[in-house]
Amino acid sequence: MSIFTKLFLLFLVSLSLMLFVSRETSQLTQSKMEMLLKEKYLQASTELFRDLANNDQTALTKRLQTFNFEVIPEPSRVLETSRSVYEKSSSFGEVKIIVDAKGQYFLLLSYLDESLLIRDKNQEEGVFAQGMVTYFIVADIFVLVVIFLLIVRLLLPLKQINLTLKSFGEGALDVRMKRFGSKELDTLSNTFNAMASNIEALIFSRQRLLRDIGHELRTPLAKSKLALEMLGEGKYQQSLKKAITQVDELTKELLDIERLNANMEQLTLATFDAETLISESLSRALIEDESLVELHVEESFEIKGDLNYLSIALKNLIDNALKYGIEKPILLEVKERTISVKSRGEALEHPLEYYCEPFAQGDAARGVEGFGLGLSIVKKIVEKHGFRLRLTCQNGWNSFSVLFK
Hints:
Blueprint: H1 3-54, H2 57-66, E1 69-71, H3 75-80, E2 83-89, E3 93-99, E4 105-111, E5 114-120, H4 123-169, H5 183-230, H6 237-261, E6 270-273, H7 274-285, E7 293-297, E8 302-305, H8 307-324, E9 330-335, E10 338-344, H9 352-355, H10 374-385, E11 388-394, E12 397-403
Parallel strand pairs: 7-9
Antiparallel strand pairs: 1-5, 2-3, 3-4, 4-5, 6-8, 9-10, 10-12, 11-12
Helix pairs in contact: 1-2, 1-4, 5-6, 6-10, 7-8, 8-10
């Protein structure tokens, strides 16, 4: 779950709780004010009703002042938009407590043909207090929304930073981070841009060095091979030819590893089936005796990747199996989106990571030609595609498998 999603969910929870508290507070305040006014109106109604029945205007006026009540001069306008919340009738009249559309409570006294509509002036303070509570809650909600928007604005650059870092990690060395306005983010941007420029310069320098090494080494090697061919058969010709070939192969393998490490070679993705990959790999291995390799295809499948690089990886696995296997033929198995290269031999004593290190060789490699770079190249090619390399040793078989999952 992303930071923005978590923040948005937290904001929704906080907003929901605040709205719930606002509603409950408003209802509680309203209920309490209504209860207090009812008690006050009912307590005063008995005495006011008596003064009204006695037609004692002086006592009635004095009692209204005591309770801080005021008489509504035009009761019809209030009664049109009001509803009754309490009623009590007698043979001579009735007492009603009503509330209008604005939430104000009134006491209606009726005696015979006379009616008196009065209101408690103190309830304005309660209404004002209730309004202030509502105002503060609304203000809190507004502040919460503003804080959420400010945090979102602060987090938005993180998405751009993530995209920039991802592009740089995928090999776009010229990508740079823009300025964001914030002091902290500007510092981060400047630091990254400086680092990216240094890395770009180092990698370009490394690329030039690799090209120069490849050119400077292969040119004299090619001349040496040509000179050997022009010489007659001699005692040391085969030894020299073999040494030059090994140096040429070592140079090529080292350059391949450095290219993969530096992301110099971009993959040319295509879709092909497992049998096409095996056929291409076997043709690269230049196996003269086909009986040395036994192929078992239980279930073929499609692969999306770089056929050239994957065939190099599988060819290296086949070469290793042929070099180090104590019995022939070796097995190539295809099933469950996995290609396995199996050879007979004692169980390998080290984990896979050991053999994938450059120039790492096991005891079985003693006396066998090679430089211990094959599996290192295989691992880098497989990882560059997002696939997996696995080693299993059981029942006298050592199996290197590429999982195309």
